[in-house]
Amino acid sequence: MPESPASPGKPPSQPGSPLNAATPFPASALLRGSVLLLAFLVLQLVLFWNILGFPSSRFLPAPGHRNTTWPNGAVNGGACDDGLIYVYDLPSEFNHDLVDDCESLWPWYSFCPYLANGGFGEAAATLPVFFNVTRNVSLPSWYNTDQFQLEVIIHRRLLSHRCRTTDPSLATAFYVPFYVGLDVGSHLWGDNSTAADRDRAGLRLLRWLNNQTSFQRSGGWDHFITLGRITWDFRRFGDDGWGTNFVVLPGIANVTRLGIEADRLDPMEVAVPYPTGFHPRTAADVRAWQRHVLSLRRSKLFGFAGAPRSGFRDDFREVLLEECEDAGSEHCRSVDCRGTRCTDNGAAVLELFLDSSFCLQPRGDSFTRRSLFDCMVAGAVPVLFWRRTAYDQYRWYLPPGPARGEAEDDGEWSVFIDRQALRVGNVSVRDILEGLSERRVRRMRERVVEMIPRLVYASSPDGLGDGMEDALDVALRGVLERFRRRRASTAPQGFSAKRPPGRSVALARRVDNKSTPAPAPPSDGKNGSAAAVNQNASGTKPSSPASSYVKPVVSKASASTGKSLQKS
């Protein structure tokens, strides 16, 4: 092993070199020094750029301890009339540390790229596979987003939300930013992972919550949390089995849980859309995308993204692949999603759905797949085979399907096919879809496109703006309404349950000196209706007769939201 000299000695002369060489000209030394300095500065810039791009807790700033109720600036009168939200500053082990340890979250590959950009993943503008799939004007709105990033996305957005307060005494709702999905996901496939490993973080969180005054006061009924994986990953009964027991712990019983899929028998769980790769910044971005997907000439009648599962008895995906093959390449195309092909390359799925009029949506590991939302964002009409895939699941977001035996109506947005009839060969997908009139198909597509804003998570801290709600806006409105009704049912007679004591005074001081709520904006097409996105530059509506069959999604969704809240 070569030794390092204790002190530098005079270096020996190289063979063949003159012993009394002339001293180098000073200009040459100066040039070498300048080159070395420039190289050093370039290296520092490269390292600094990599540090900024590497996913860590830096992209997700912790809630600041400020002496103001509105840490994110003043808001317009009435904007927070439904209530203020307090975001707990949890110990870092429950969120930030999980992000910092992104290399170890998944046993097969690094999870770090999917945690970049606050959980959106790598920007499509940096991935060549997206260049020919999305329009240039919409490319900045697209990311390679993993389906299990809901916890990170919601936390980041709420930290900068206009109705966030750092004073818990003024809060109507309390958000618990525990990345339970990331935590349990890191233990699901470990060779030596035990139930105790999967349960440990959840138990520690509940111990922490039980020491918080706000949680003690309400027992958790005004608290909510997000679940970034399907519900069955969090409801293990007993000491052995799949997943964690987090949601069946007594301490979590009163907490409202927003998850990508919910147990319909659990009234405390609410299903919210899976994160897709579309994260627009403004309402204008959404309208541009809506116009694009409505104008496409789709060459395939239907498409299917998935893969057969040989380990499953009577695998229904195999039936759908056979349907696609029987229809022929002129009418159907499929994308093989075995392994991580579709996870690594979301552009392949997007390209398929943009070119298909309909998309087949069987159940996955649970009743819904993220593919349902990828399909709708691409403007394709979903074809369903289980009612729980959508109709009985996303009550705050999607209109219910027709009752069994009931005729379709003008608000239809999907096709439902009896899977048993399809399996035995009594019907075929191609025959059913070709039997729909062109006018009816166009009406369904317009209905799907109207709903796009409510199915995506905006990249702007302020949401989409211009009166357009995204998926988080819908979720918060539902959560705050749920808490308001609970408070009203338990408040003493004569006590206003709309907001905690003292809040109205604070609002009057802070919210632009306006204590009167602003009236609700009229329905003027700003919520993403097909009629609005088809308007030309002059503001006039096109003469296409299809627009006369479009019904605004907001009015219906608001009604369905109210009904679903009454049931919960």
Automatic annotation (TrEMBL):
GO terms for molecular function: glycosyltransferase activity. It comes from the Eukaryota. Residues 81-422 form the Exostosin GT47 domain. It is a single-pass type II membrane protein. It is found in: Golgi apparatus membrane. The keyword Transmembrane applies. The chain crosses the membrane at residues 29-52. Residues 532-547, 557-568 have a biased composition (Polar residues). Keywords: Glycosyltransferase, Golgi apparatus, Membrane, Signal-anchor, Transferase, Transmembrane, Transmembrane helix. It holds the Pfam family Exostosin_GT47. Residues 510-568 are annotated as: Disordered. This is Exostosin GT47 domain-containing protein. It comes from Sorghum bicolor (Sorghum).
